[in-house]
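User: These chains co-purify. Model them together.
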Amino acid sequence: MLDVKAKLAAMGRTLPEPVKPVAVYVPVIQSGDLLVVSGQLPMREGKLLATGAVPSAASIDEANEAAAQCAVNVIAAIGAHLAGDWSRVLQIVRVGVFVQSDDGFGGQPQVANGASELLGEVFGESGRHARSAVGVNALPLNASVEVELMVRIKEAD
Amino acid sequence: MLDVKAKLAAMGRTLPEPVKPVAVYVPVIQSGDLLVVSGQLPMREGKLLATGAVPSAASIDEANEAAAQCAVNVIAAIGAHLAGDWSRVLQIVRVGVFVQSDDGFGGQPQVANGASELLGEVFGESGRHARSAVGVNALPLNASVEVELMVRIKEAD
Amino acid sequence: MLDVKAKLAAMGRTLPEPVKPVAVYVPVIQSGDLLVVSGQLPMREGKLLATGAVPSAASIDEANEAAAQCAVNVIAAIGAHLAGDWSRVLQIVRVGVFVQSDDGFGGQPQVANGASELLGEVFGESGRHARSAVGVNALPLNASVEVELMVRIKEAD
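Assistant: Joint model of the three components:
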């Protein structure tokens, strides 16, 4: 079994409790062998790691780390859906990264790499993915980054 | 059969004629058992319910209602594709909500709930979905909200 | 076999070398019979065709042509994945178009048509797709347009 908790610990990261399901939408939906994960914010212990636009209010480095935290939260959400068996992850298919950006800022890829690299470190070959990174002028709770995901899993035995 | 028209009527809403297909893209594409619905604007009787950025030009309440209208238009598009048999909807898989926002506005979830709650009321358990809500500085025709959807359906008998 | 190179040539366009895979993400991921193509920028011979916001820094016509170039680059990426056999493309399923926009600009559909029409010309019926076009205030490298794609293919014989 893929021990994601240990991998994250070795990277100095903690696997959080997954975000509680809310009434009107859910963190993860399964459709056939696809999981779609709702947009995740860079919450750590109940606080946003980075708020405001990049780079004026949050630096590229801060936003990169925030993107990594979004990815950690995505992993937690997937784990809750799969009862902790992340070895069922066949492929991270698509990663969408929204970066709250100053007008005309062009460094979204550097920010998004925080999420992409973490997924690669945790899932190896299965962590390779297609990606779209775009800038936006506003995100929920004024977060600097939001990450959404599509994952292919293998059916349970 | 799921009587979506009656459900909407009970909510005081009218099922519109679906938007006419245009030359270069279509309202709904089916790929296997997935339907992908093009981004829908909050059109009602040929007019946008809300235009401009939230909250300066359109209030959160107005935008929430506009998001609900987008969802109604999505439902109309799905119905046209399924020849009116919405009971073939197995699962609303993913809802993407773009909210035209003032810089740094963080209330996209409250706006997006207008779409999510309507889908839940109409489709019940099948209406639960993953969601990404983001802010943007511009949308087609200066609309305040745009909603896109991915849906899983069951094959026709 | 669908001769995409000839079709593009007849349109006065050149099929570029596909963008090289980078470390942390890849241009195309296959999941079952779905291909997901990473967001493509309007690169032509190593330069962006259009930068800055539409319409103040790049005109609608320039951005429309840039969107067409994004689509050409998407086609190149798909070709690299399919070893040049574009006849395996069953359906362009979804096209997402992000247009760097001045605040409140509402002409994203005219820009996005550059991509949609090119896909229709190249793939015919298989090129019909669902589409979402939105405005954003910033894109990677300050590009004026970014295009992402989901495609359904048939399995190799």
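The beta strands of chain A are 28-31, 34-40, 43-44, 47-48, 89-100, 130-136, 145-153.
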